[in-house]
Amino acid sequence: MGKYEYKVPQLYTSALFEEGNSIAWPLLSQTEYPWEAIPGIKDFIKSIGPTLPSDEYDSPRPGVWIHKTASVAPSAFIGDDVIICEGAEIRHCAFIRGSAIVGKNAVVGNSTELKNVILFDCVQAPHYNYVGDSILGYKAHMGAGSITSNVKSDKTLVSINFNGEKLPTGMKKFGAILGDNVEVGCGTVLNPGSVAGKGASIYPLSSVRGFVPAGCIYKRQGEVVERL
């Protein structure tokens, strides 16, 4: 099957995120499906970074912009092509490898690693998380030790499983998309190409593949129930 031979409105950018709530919205708003923005994160940062007001953002070195109200622990590592927005908190030993947008009032916690990501405003990845080649929507929360797995073990291109069908993305590296207000339980693995709709909840210690519908609770593979 070729790429996008059929449409899945539940996976549209507009279905997963409310407009705004991220400095990266101009990039996302150009996409039909949000993962289409992932390869362009670095270039978007390079283009928008120099336009950020110098009275609001510090630029400790070329390619890095940190809002003056953000809190960055001395032990945190900040790589290349990074924007850290107003009120964000980067805690002890956070590892931001690069190509990362950390939204307003977001939390990147102890030993959390980010790589090629967009964190919307008020996202929390506070304890021992790995988030790579992924997008986390407004107020999404990653429980302690939960991670996005962004490369398949056989290194083939990532597809999204949706109602027994596979939607190809054409991407080798693609972790997860979490819609607004998604809760991910502790110790969960979001396998490559996982997508959770707005307000979905995922039980701790889950191994998630494919799509979790908006407003539903993922208990285990094959058991996804509507929230009462």
Q: State the helix count.
A: 3
Strand content: 35-45%
CATH topology: UDP N-Acetylglucosamine Acyltransferase, domain 1
What would you give as the CATH superfamily? Hexapeptide repeat proteins
Helix-strand string: HHHEEEEEEEEEEEEEEEEEEEEEEE
User: What global shape is seen?
Assistant: globular
Unreliable residue stretches: none
By CATH reckoning, the class would read Mainly Beta
Total number of strands? 23
Architecture in CATH? 3 Solenoid
Q: How is the largest sheet built, in terms of strand order?
A: 1-2-4-6-8-10-15-18-21
Give the helix proportion (percent range). Answer: under 10%
The structure class reads mainly beta
Ends apart, CA distance between termini: 37 Å
Mean pLDDT over the residues: 95
Tally of discrete structural domains: 1
